[in-house]
Amino acid sequence: MKALAASRRHRSAPVVLLLLALILTGVAYAALTPDPATAQTASQEQIDTGEALFRTNCSTCHGLDAQGTDLAPSLVGVGAASVHFQVSTGRMPMANNSPQAERKDPLMTPEQTEALAAYVASLGPGPAIPSAEQVDPEQGDAANGMELFRTNCSMCHNAVGAGGALTEGKVAPPLDDATPTQIWEAMRTGPQSMPIFNEASITDEGARDVIAYVMEQREVSPGGITLGNLGPVSEGFWVWIVGIGGIIGIAVWMGARSS
Amino acid sequence: MSTDRPTGELTAREGAGTVADVPERFENPGLPAHPERLADRDPKAAKRVERQLVLLLLISIAASIGGVVGWATIPVGTTLMDVRLSTLVLGLGLGLALLGIGVAAVHWSKTLMSNKEYVEERKPIASSEEVRAEATEMLETGIEESGIARRPVLKGALVGAAALAPLPFVVPLVGELPEQWDSRRFAHTAWGRVPAGSGGRLPDGTMGRRLATDPDGRLIRAADVTNGSAFQVIPHGLENEEHYLEEKAKAVVFMTRIDPAEMTISPERRDWHYDGIVAYSKVCTHVGCPVALYEQQTHHLLCPCHQSTFDLANEAKVVFGPAKRALPQLPITVDTEGYLVARSDFHETVGPSFWERERLDENR
């Protein structure tokens, strides 16, 4: 300790200290910087498979080079996340040109879906498919997610994600079947009527919190039968028909003369 | 029942009845014949009913015990399923216990207890003359002995004290009313104020309140607002202000970006949007629900309460529903540091209509 105290006035002490400080800063920076979202790099083979799939399944509406037609929008720049959401939820290819693209069994296998996504992503930059860590509900804060969900999502999707009606036959679907990845992709890409919630609107951490909140809603309801979580309609039906009906039945029984 | 109806004049008819048969006044028909119940006639039936009653009460006992046992055995607070199960068992126990007793009581009184009807004449309500006279006398003596009639100053002081005693309770209640009913506080929102640290400098040198995300309060750059993206917006630094929730309720804003080529913009609102970024009050002009169901393909903003629909591509004019007025637009731009700021407060009172609203807007 004494030797160290004596050497602080040494000629080379500033240089050594500066070097130490630089190394420390570098190590701290490397340790503290979050990993950038690493999009899975697509191989050329995958892109070619995707292009072939696109030609056969999607080009009728979206055009041979995904440039868009009168029927459907251009897909240049929508990103892999958008394609992965639409195809993995079965919304695309669409069954018919109705106002609402319904969720149905997906037509493509997961590999085909990723190949399609890789092809569309190669046409222009857009949101990539999130990593498993980005959408891991275990790492999200459901309480914060609830606050974000209430402000940003609940007006269309209902306070617990049971869905709701929009205009002219369109609906905000229930979130019961959506996977964490699909929820993330829907927020970032704004499918159909839904607006986009980008990183500036809901941060990456916030998006994970929202996913944690939505996943938490799938657990059993501590309050008993949820009646679809639809609020006053189903609850009112229950109270008026079953509840008041039962009370009337008992009143009639009490007033009837015993045989 | 007879199908004969009374006619205008009483004429004797052959056979059935004649005028002479109609009595002067109807006699009290008395009680109907007392029907014997099954349990009254048949001891076996009575025994059966007794067994039913015992069964009902046993169900009640079992439910009570079951509820307590459930409470003791099901741990609460480990999983949601346990909470649900514990509540269910407790509720069923309590419900069935009471229902069993109730059903048994009604069944018992209907079938086994005596159902003989009795007639009891009603007693007169008024007291007898003597009692009334005595009470009046006591009152008069009391007044006379207290001497209140002879001491008018004392009487006045008593009346005054009694009349003023409620004032400390009533005055604060009524005193709040002028402030509570002053509708001028609805005319302006937090967007018109720029407390230190919550604003940005506009190109013309004035200060404007910065826009921040709701609920986490992050500042927003114009480049962050991409086409079709949705932002729920509050004034920056609002959480530090007094009456935060009241101010937030007035100042909430929905923001998105629409291609300016798709928008209809009137000349006086030319500089209210920033490169297609538009911000509108989120408080419905119908009854004040938060309007935030945004369909980005049609640019329609819906109110969840009564389906009023506003067209954001056309200055939030009403296209459907009971709302009468367009949503007020918040004039925005970017400050010298690139953050979105409000140019000014809303140019009209936000929210639903009320009596003084038009007058308020005329005097802004």
Summarize the helices and strands and which ones pair or pack.
The complex is a heterodimer of chains A (about 260) and B (about 375).
Chain A: H1 2-7, H2 13-32, H3 44-57, H4 59-62, H5 79-88, H6 110-121, H7 142-152, H8 154-157, E1 164-165, E2 171-172, H9 180-189, H10 204-216, H11 232-255
Antiparallel strand pairs in A: 1-2
Helix pairs in contact in A: 3-6, 5-6, 5-9, 7-10, 9-10
Chain B: H1 38-41, H2 43-73, H3 80-111, H4 129-146, H5 152-164, H6 167-175, H7 177-180, E1 199-201, E2 207-209, E3 211-213, E4 230-235, H8 244-251, E5 253-257, E6 277-281, E7 293-295, E8 300-302, E9 309-311, E10 317-320, E11 332-334, E12 340-342, H9 357-362
Antiparallel strand pairs in B: 1-2, 3-4, 4-5, 5-6, 7-8, 8-9, 9-10, 11-12
Helix pairs in contact in B: 2-3
Overview of this protein structure:
The complex is a heterodimer of chains A (259) and B (364). Chain A is an all-alpha fold and 259 residues long. Among the domains of chain A are: 44-121, Cytochrome c-like domain (Cytochrome Bc1 Complex, Chain D, domain 2, Orthogonal Bundle); 137-216, Cytochrome c-like domain (Cytochrome Bc1 Complex, Chain D, domain 2, Orthogonal Bundle). Chain A is 49% helix and 2% strand. Chain A has eleven helices and two strands, in the order ααααααααββααα. A two-stranded antiparallel ribbon of chain A has the order 1-2. In chain A, helix 3 (44-57) packs across helix 6 (110-121) and helix 7 crosses helix 10 (204-216). The longest helix of chain A has 24 residues, at 232-255. With 364 residues, chain B is of the alpha+beta class. Among the domains of chain B are: 38-111; 185-362, 3-layer Sandwich (Rieske Iron-sulfur Protein), CATH 2.102.10. Chain B contains nine helices and twelve strands. A four-stranded antiparallel sheet of chain B has the order 3-4-5-6. In chain B, helix 2 (43-73) packs antiparallel against helix 3. Mean pLDDT of chain B is 88; it is low at 1-8. Chain A binds chain B through residues 147-148, 151-152, 155-156, 164, 166-167, 170, 172, 190, 192-201, 203, 206, 219-224, 253-254, 257-259, and chain B through 35, 37-39, 80-81, 83-84, 87-88, 106, 110-111, 115, 213-216, 218, 220-221, 224-226, 228-232, 256, 290, 292-298, 300, 302, 304, 307, 309, 320.
